[in-house]
Amino acid sequence: MVSTLIVLSLIITTARSFNGFGTTGDLTTRKRELAAFLAQTSHETTGGWPSAPDGPYAWRYCFIREQNNDQAYCLPGVWPCPRGRLYYGRGPFQLAYNFNYGQAGRDIGVDLINNPDLVATNPTISFKTAIWFWMTPQGNKPSSHNVIVGQWTPSAAERDAGWLPGYGVITNIINGELECGHGPDDRVADRIGFYRSPSQLYEKCRDAVFKCGNISIGYPFSGGDREPECGHPNLELRCDDFTNTTKIEIVGIKYKVLDIHHESRILRIAREDFINNGSCRPQIPIQDSILNSEPFVPGSRNTNLTLLYDCQSSSSLGIFPCNSSNYNNVSITTD
Ligand SMILES: *[C@@H]1O[C@H](CO)[C@@H](O)[C@H](O)[C@H]1NC(C)=O
Ligand SMILES: *[C@@H]1O[C@H](CO)[C@@H](O)[C@H](O)[C@H]1NC(C)=O
Ligand SMILES: *[C@@H]1O[C@H](CO)[C@@H](O)[C@H](O)[C@H]1NC(C)=O
Ligand SMILES: *[C@@H]1O[C@H](CO)[C@@H](O)[C@H](O)[C@H]1NC(C)=O
Ligand SMILES: *[C@@H]1O[C@H](CO)[C@@H](O)[C@H](O)[C@H]1NC(C)=O
Ligand SMILES: *[C@@H]1O[C@H](CO)[C@@H](O)[C@H](O)[C@H]1NC(C)=O
């Protein structure tokens, strides 16, 4: 089972390529959209059952591939199926059928008709197809995104058919032909159950904070005496108990953490090997050591990235005087 928080960070990395996902409307609307997305994908991949240990909703993201998958799910049309390729359910939404693989692949720029298994084996592609499904109107139905952020108004006919804006319409978009319009349905109840139950991992990690000296921070950072799942493995903080200073290692290079500002999303770090040693010629260029490494991926929303290395003002950008008294001063900011 993949932990929910890791899943969240994958979503955040992937979501940058979809304008509007999780970023539309006020904070409540954004949280509601992410909660609905997590609940629906949790149901699609659930390994729980009514009397499962810790309850039916403790078993999210268990199945990447549909169980007993030997069907081709190939319908005739504009997306002919190459020999031997099967389009059974894969990924967070259990994307199925050749036409869905064809359209999703076309829109995210990956040939999924010839390589359908990428939806199960490549986490980024997997989540891109899920967010694609969420953002794209399906047939004559609206997109799940438009429904949950309140940008869909049902027509008179849709109102008469009982289509009212809300979580239930999303279930109809996903699997309406099978699950809707015939009274109580266990699958529908399971989707609602996930929406109502906060993840147990979230509850466990919500109040777990890394504390060291004057630094105090929770997700997305891991480290300290917290559960490892409470943060990203590449953002592990360590505390030096003798000096109460916080350390972080990024792509094999050790840094001292000077400051973390959660709200402004600024992490200020200084290379340990250059602190007070009179040299300022990094062996590895900074762009190789940090900027191209996950999770520090410059996304489309982080177009402006400023690196200040021992600078008194941004006018001295790119000039690194070695002998000032200001060695501990590196800040990387993105907007
Ligand atoms: C934390 O303390 C260090 C010195 O121990 C100081 O350089 C740094 O500015 C302090 N950070 C904050 C956020 O107070
Ligand atoms: C480090 O922090 C602990 C707990 O706050 C404190 O007891 C200890 O004196 C601090 N050590 C130093 C060197 O500041
Ligand atoms: C400073 O650190 C770098 C990297 O570890 C090392 O190559 C260099 O020799 C050090 N300079 C001094 C003066 O110790
Ligand atoms: C990035 O910085 C440039 C130069 O300061 C500025 O003109 C531009 O508007 C900035 N872009 C964003 C997205 O903030
Ligand atoms: C780092 O540089 C900035 C920009 O010049 C300055 O405002 C800040 O006081 C410096 N911080 C430290 C710890 O030297
Ligand atoms: C740094 O070194 C340069 C010469 O290399 C010197 O002119 C300057 O005064 C020095 N600055 C400090 C703060 O020591």
TrEMBL record:
<keyword id="KW-1133">Transmembrane helix</keyword>
<keyword id="KW-0624">Polysaccharide degradation</keyword>
<dbReference type="GO" id="GO:0016998">
    <property type="term" value="P:cell wall macromolecule catabolic process"/>
</dbReference>
<keyword id="KW-1015">Disulfide bond</keyword>
<keyword id="KW-0812">Transmembrane</keyword>
<feature type="signal peptide">
    <location>
        <begin position="1"/>
        <end position="17"/>
    </location>
</feature>
<dbReference type="GO" id="GO:0006032">
    <property type="term" value="P:chitin catabolic process"/>
</dbReference>
<dbReference type="GO" id="GO:0000272">
    <property type="term" value="P:polysaccharide catabolic process"/>
</dbReference>
<protein>
    <recommendedName>
        <fullName>chitinase</fullName>
        <ecNumber>3.2.1.14</ecNumber>
    </recommendedName>
</protein>
<keyword id="KW-0146">Chitin degradation</keyword>
<dbReference type="GO" id="GO:0050832">
    <property type="term" value="P:defense response to fungus"/>
</dbReference>
<dbReference type="Pfam" id="PF13947">
    <property type="entry name" value="GUB_WAK_bind"/>
</dbReference>
<dbReference type="InterPro" id="IPR000726">
    <property type="entry name" value="Glyco_hydro_19_cat"/>
</dbReference>
<dbReference type="GO" id="GO:0016020">
    <property type="term" value="C:membrane"/>
</dbReference>
<keyword id="KW-0378">Hydrolase</keyword>
<dbReference type="GO" id="GO:0008843">
    <property type="term" value="F:endochitinase activity"/>
</dbReference>
<keyword id="KW-0326">Glycosidase</keyword>
<keyword id="KW-0732">Signal</keyword>
<feature type="domain" description="Glycoside hydrolase family 19 catalytic">
    <location>
        <begin position="125"/>
        <end position="135"/>
    </location>
</feature>
<dbReference type="Pfam" id="PF00182">
    <property type="entry name" value="Glyco_hydro_19"/>
</dbReference>
<keyword id="KW-0119">Carbohydrate metabolism</keyword>
<dbReference type="GO" id="GO:0030247">
    <property type="term" value="F:polysaccharide binding"/>
</dbReference>
<dbReference type="InterPro" id="IPR023346">
    <property type="entry name" value="Lysozyme-like_dom_sf"/>
</dbReference>
<dbReference type="InterPro" id="IPR025287">
    <property type="entry name" value="WAK_GUB"/>
</dbReference>
<keyword id="KW-0472">Membrane</keyword>
